[in-house]
Design goal:
single chain, alpha/beta, Rossmann fold, Beta-Lactamase, 3 domains, six-stranded antiparallel β-sheet, five-stranded parallel β-sheet, 8 helices, 11 strands, 53% helix, rod-shaped, kinase, transferase
């Protein structure tokens, strides 16, 4: 919208007719004070300002507008029927005007100037809006990065407090953070712990999961610094997706060697129990069957009933032992 400022209503009317005929929206002010109030309240793309006005002339209005942050970038065209000398023209430009036109005004020339300044104002406004949006986006990105940084610092603090080995990797697999437990297996952050020769294939398997951004879990044997033996660890790797689509990996290595030893002892026990329990039960069952066949002619005798009971109970006990061993094997 264009603001027309003139103390004479007929001049305002003439300009409004000219501008509105070309599709421009206009507003009017009959004094400098009214122009200032409207400029603070409304948004204008251009101000056409008469120089010769009572109380507050056009130069004073322009100087005030250019000193206000909201209105300082509004282009101002001065119109004058009296002050045509060079010194007044210079004063007009010095007070913030971008053009100085003497009356009577050629409508065609005025329209060309208005279109040019209007277009420049729109382009400037668009650029300023883009700049503000860009600044806002940069601020939001910085804030998001700062928040993400704090979150990862919090994660690192949590990882540092864990009793197992903990570490983080970037998207390429480069180590970024390790806790103190790591340094019990490796001399520094850049070196990986010593892996058992038979477990080296785990790294190749992990590479496939890394490409697919899939969680990874595998048992692996590691050797502590200055130790001669390897200990079983459970390796877990979890991808963490950042806001800018970057990937980080959080990994843990939990010592499960004692559990593995207990599982080994349990397997040994099951093997022994399978033999030690089944063998006598099989013998009892077999001998009771032989005794029953031998006593077929006296099956009315009490002894026959007792031996039948022994055979029946031994079969039940053998079934229970086999079920127990089967359950233990599945659980292991």
């Amino acid at each position: 919208m264009i603001l027309i400022v003139d103390d004479k209503p007929e001049n305002i009317f003439s300009l409004e007719v000219t501008l509105q005929s070309k599709g421009f929206k206009t507003d009017a002010a009959l004094s400098g004070e009214e122009a200032l109030k409207k400029s603070l309240k409304n948004d204008y793309a251009l101000i056409i300002l008469d120089v010769q006005m009572p109380e507050m002339d056009g130069f004073e209005v322009a100087e005030t507008l250019t000193g206000i942050n909201k209105t300082k970038d509004i282009p101002i065209i001065f119109l004058t029927a009296v002050n045509k000398e060079k010194k007044f023209i210079a004063k007009g430009y010095a007070s913030g005007g971008i053009d100085y036109i003497a009356k009577p005004v050629d409508p065609d020339i005025l329209l060309l100037k208005v279109k040019t300044f209007y277009r420049l104002y729109e382009q400037t406004s668009t650029l300023q809006k883009m700049q503000k949006d860009l600044q806002k986006e940069v601020t939001q990105r910085k804030l998001a990065q700062e928040q993400l940084k704090l979150k990862f610092e919090e994660v690192n603090s949590i990882l540092e407090s864990l009793p197992q080995i903990a570490f983080t990797l970037d998207g390429k697999g480069t180590i970024e953070f390790v806790n103190q437990e790591w340094l019990k297996y490796s001399p520094n952050i850049a070196s990986c712990p010593v892996i058992h020769p038979d477990d080296q294939g785990v790294l190749d398997t992990w590479s496939l999961h890394q490409e697919l951004f899939e969680p990874f879990e595998k048992e692996i044997r590691l050797k502590k610094l200055h130790a001669n033996s390897y200990r079983y660890h459970l390796l877990k790797m979890t991808p963490v997706f950042k806001q800018n689509n970057e990937i980080k990996w959080v990994g843990t290595l939990t010592d499960i060697d004692e559990r593995k030893q207990l599982e080994k002892k349990k397997d040994e026990f099951l093997s022994v129990a399978s033999h030690e329990l089944k063998t006598p039960l099989t013998s009892i069952k077999a001998f009771s069957q032989i005794a029953l066949r031998a006593m077929q002619d006296i099956n009315e005798h009490k002894a026959y009933a007792y031996i039948s009971k022994v055979k029946e109970q031994s079969e039940k006990l053998q079934s229970l032992v086999e079920d127990l061993l089967d359950i233990s094997t599945v659980a292991s």
